[in-house]
From TrEMBL:
It comes from the Eukaryota. It is a peripheral membrane protein. The gene is Aif1l. Gene3D superfamilies: EF-hand (1.10.238.10). The keyword rRNA-binding does not apply. This is Allograft inflammatory factor 1-like. PANTHER family: ALLOGRAFT INFLAMMATORY FACTOR 1-LIKE, ALLOGRAFT INFLAMMATORY FACTOR-1. GO terms for molecular function: actin filament binding; calcium ion binding. Keywords: Acetylation, Calcium, Cell membrane, Cell projection, Cytoplasm, Cytoskeleton, Membrane, Metal-binding, Phosphoprotein, Repeat. GO terms for biological process: actin filament bundle assembly; ruffle assembly. One of its GO terms (cellular component) is ruffle membrane. Residues 146-165 are annotated as: Disordered.
Length: 165
């Protein structure tokens, strides 16, 4: 039995020259998967750009690009859908944590009960639609919060008696 002690009696970490193959969850394969998913989302965006129903939508290309990025960020299972955990994480990141049951209700509201996940078409339809889904309101609020000027820092300015109402 080989010893893990070196010539000076100190422990030696054995060297491993074996290279493990990288699965679909990492490395080059992961990058290719993400590129394929973005291409599919771009194709769907193109469909919306060509749809007469959305021709009057202001800043449609920019909105669709933003939707694509937001959607890809929370597609945690890399299957092209936002599942319950992805939506739950999205809501937590937006500062509006929801219970598991609330998240399920949101998915039913967006998909009409046809699925347990939100696909990109449902997501875009919800964001561009006239209905005010909870998720749409939260995402719109986040965009406004990110674009709004932050409160001034530091102590409030000194006031004298004449400036009081």
């Amino acid at each position: 039995m080989p010893s893990n002690l070196g010539a000076q009696g100190k422990a030696v970490i054995p060297r491993c020259d074996h290279v493990f193959p990288v699965g679909a969850a990492g490395g080059k394969a992961f990058g290719q998967l993400k590129a394929q998913q973005r291409e599919k989302l771009d194709e769907i965006n193109k469909e919306y750009m060509e749809d007469q129903k959305y021709r009057d939508e202001e800043d449609l290309p920019e909105k669709l690009e933003g939707f694509k990025n937001k959607y890809a960020e929370f597609d945690l299972n890399d299957q092209g859908d936002i599942d319950i955990m992805g939506l739950k994480q999205m809501m937590e990141k937006l500062g509006v944590p929801k219970t598991h049951l609330d998240v399920k209700k949101m998915i039913v509201e967006v998909t009409g009960g046809s699925s347990n996940t939100i696909n990109y078409r449902d997501f875009v339809r919800m964001m561009l639609g006239k209905r005010s889904a909870v998720l749409k309101l939260v995402l719109a609020f986040e965009d406004k919060a990110n674009g709004a000027a932050s409160k001034p820092g530091g102590p409030p300015p000194k006031r004298d008696i004449s400036s009081l109402p």
